[in-house]
């Protein structure tokens, strides 16, 4: 009897678990995007049937191309580039080559590149995005790590920058230098980055029994929003020598050097901004109004985008996102997964405070 | 006799031509960096000996990996990125994949990546650089095209942006809108880009019997140089109502709104800048002095770097370098070379005038 018994096949496991053979392969090889429950159901079915993967197939699977695919929605992006460089650097150190492919937000191009990567038998794929908003997982049968933009499947391996860490460092720096009345000028509303940073500022202040001077403000990621936000904040919080609220006409006179705001109570001592671009608009507008940064008002940026941070007058105290390190971590996680030890869930990489003259 | 005659080998051709076998291969396959004289000497030797390349070797050489190496000194650069994207895009359209490698100006890393490319049997290599200054050729036995930074060997295939074309378009636009007294504020001195643009401005004006109001000025590629250059130009060219030269004290008073420069003869009606960053500094400084752009003075940038060009007040009329098209052309030249039809020498790609409010 035993001699005629045919070996258990992957299709048998698939039938018992009620999934496709591809899903069985993913579950047993710890690759792809699967719910943990599915993975466990497949493993149980394989155990029950005594399924032994075909050694030839395993050998084929073990053949490595020492090539990794870098899939970027937006390779021109300020954020994707350092991530890709960090990844490429770490891969080269591991004698791996990196195939570059950009999708330009086009699902057809993404599908084409994923197919091309698999045709070239890449050992794994790093997927980067333009923002930290979660993105749908890619459906492939090899290890994948998501960098900067996490996968919307929480079981996938994602490496994202820790905006809470960066924002907390900014708040701690301001508190340590004696600032208490802090306003928050964020970027575009309802974006993951904007919301996490605003919430982290509120939480870090609450740890010291403090609050923002007013609700977090949102606009967009531009200099002009930073300039407008300054006027909105001063009209809301600054008081004239006689204790009256400031009027738009007072700003016009200050801009024309017909009045000084330097001896007024601005109602604020720091503005934390959601990006260096916004902060550059803030310092430019404060300069037009002859309000001294940092003596009267501290200003902080976010991103450490040097062209903005260094050309601001004064140069911006800001947060470096550590994107090259993030790319390196993504590459390390991918190399682990290729070696059979996949990561799951989101790993947050730390940020660094870059102190300059503005705060 | 004929039956015992051994076939002519590549080493025989090499000995007769007085070169290495590798050079014979490059010469007969139209690849690598060779002087045209060397190429012709090798061909003459091969003809004289009746050399027929080994068909097996030719077949091996014909095996294509459909992979191209992108070697970048500086993948984070504002210039290399669009070039690589344009190339990657054109290669993907041709079913070719792109291996990315960055050298970070390190010759050891460059040598490592070139070796890795060849080990992976890439069909060809695109080499990009951070500036348009010529760079030494790479020594490989497969087709190479240089993009943005040309090879210092004029026989190699290079694709570079046509700075003369861009500068001429700027001058023509200014002349067409009635500007005659034009100053040139360039970037870093003794750089290829700076010198070509300054010379092109002088030549384009000479075609209309005009000259720059003063010698081209050089500094660096920064906003602060743009701001300083404005003061230098006004102190040199502007006249007060009484016909005297402007003094530094007049600029201080204008900045404090204690004097108006709006009714003075500035001695200029346009400032053309070597980059958008310089031009942003120029418009910022003119704004501080309440000099109206473009009514009193037209200002132009170069690069169409949107973060600078659009946040300038007013937004900058500038030149788009067409870098994605340049990358695409480099890829097309490389595909030609891989197909056996190599290009030689420098191909210049055109630039585009982007008219906005500043001129």
Brief descriptors of the model:
434 Repressor (Amino-terminal Domain); Rossmann fold; homodimer; three-stranded parallel beta sheet; alpha/beta; 11 strands; 13% strand; 359 residues; six-stranded parallel beta sheet
List the helices and strands and how they pair.
Two copies of one chain form a homodimer.
Chain A: H1 10-17, H2 21-29, H3 36-49, H4 55-62, E1 67-72, H5 80-93, E2 97-102, H6 107-119, E3 124-128, E4 144-147, E5 157-161, H7 163-176, E6 182-185, H8 192-206, H9 223-237, H10 248-255, E7 270-273, H11 276-288, E8 298-300, H12 306-309, E9 318-320, H13 323-338, E10 345-349, E11 352-354
Pfam families (chains A, B): LacI, Peripla_BP_3
GO molecular function (chains A, B): DNA-binding transcription factor activity; transcription cis-regulatory region binding
Keywords (chains A, B): DNA-binding, Transcription, Transcription regulation
Provide a descriptive summary of the structure in words.
With 359 residues, chain A is α/β, with parallel strands linked by helices. Helices cover 42% and strands 13% of the residues of chain A. The first copy, chain A, has helices at 10-17, 21-29, 36-49, 55-62, 80-93, 107-119, 163-176, 192-206, 223-237, 248-255, 276-288, 306-309, 323-338, and strands spanning 67-72, 97-102, 124-128, 144-147, 157-161, 182-185, 270-273, 298-300, 318-320, 345-349, 352-354. In chain A, the strands form 3 sheets. A 6-stranded parallel sheet of chain A has the order 2-1-3-4-5-10, sandwiched between helices. In chain A, α5 links the parallel β1 (67-72) and β2 (97-102). In chain A, α7 packs parallel to α8 (192-206). The radius of gyration of chain A is 26 Å and the shape is elongated. Residues 55-61 of chain A have low confidence and may be disordered. The A-B interface holds A 67, 70, 75-76, 81-82, 84-85, 88-89, 92, 95, 97-102, 109, 112-113, 116, 120, 222-224, 256-258, 277, 284, 307-308, 311 and B 67, 70, 75-76, 81-82, 84-85, 88-89, 92, 95, 97-102, 109, 112-113, 116, 120, 222-224, 256-258, 277, 284, 307-308, 311. Chains A, B: One of its GO terms (molecular function) is transcription cis-regulatory region binding. Chains A, B: It comes from Microlunatus elymi. Chains A, B: This is LacI family transcriptional regulator. Chains A, B: Residues 8-62 form the HTH lacI-type domain.
């Amino acid at each position: 009897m035993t001699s005629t018994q045919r070996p258990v096949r992957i299709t048998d496991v698939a039938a018992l678990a009620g999934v496709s053979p591809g899903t069985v392969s993913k579950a047993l090889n710890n690759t792809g995007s699967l719910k943990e429950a599915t993975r466990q159901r497949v493993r149980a079915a394989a155990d029950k049937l005594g399924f032994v993967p075909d050694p030839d197939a395993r050998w084929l699977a073990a053949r490595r191309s020492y090539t990794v695919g870098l899939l970027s929605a937006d390779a021109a992006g300020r954020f994707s580039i350092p991530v890709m460089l960090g990844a490429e650097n770490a891969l080269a150190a591991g004698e791996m080559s990196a195939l570059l492919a950009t999708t330009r937000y086009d699902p057809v191009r993404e599908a084409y590149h994923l197919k091309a990567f698999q045709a070239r038998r890449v050992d794994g794929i790093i997927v980067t995005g333009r923002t930290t908003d979660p993105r749908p997982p890619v459906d492939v049968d090899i290890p994948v790590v998501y960098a900067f933009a996490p996968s919307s499947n929480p079981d996938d391996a994602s490496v994202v920058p820790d905006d809470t860490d960066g924002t907390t460092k900014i708040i701690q720096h301001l508190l340590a230098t004696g600032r208490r009345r802090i306003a928050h000028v964020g970027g575009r509303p309802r974006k993951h980055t904007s919301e996490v940073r605003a919430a982290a500022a509120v939480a870090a202040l609450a740890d010291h029994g403090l609050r923002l001077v007013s609700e977090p403000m949102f606009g967009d990621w531009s200099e002009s929003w930073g300039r407008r936000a300054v006027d909105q904040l001063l009209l809301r919080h600054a008081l004239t020598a006689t204790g009256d609220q400031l009027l738009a006409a007072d700003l016009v006179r200050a801009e024309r050097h017909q009045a000084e705001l330097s001896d007024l109570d601005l109602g604020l001592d720091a503005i934390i901004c959601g990006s260096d671009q916004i902060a550059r608009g803030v310092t430019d507008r404060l300069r037009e109004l002859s309000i001294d940064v940092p003596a009267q008002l501290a200003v902080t940026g976010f991103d450490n985008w040097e062209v903005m941070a260094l050309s601001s007058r004064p140069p911006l105290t800001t947060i470096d996102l550590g994107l090259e390190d993030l790319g390196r971590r993504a590459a390390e996680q991918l190399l682990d997964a290729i070696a059979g030890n996949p990561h799951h869930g989101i790993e947050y990489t730390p940020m660094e405070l870059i102190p300059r003259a503005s705060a």
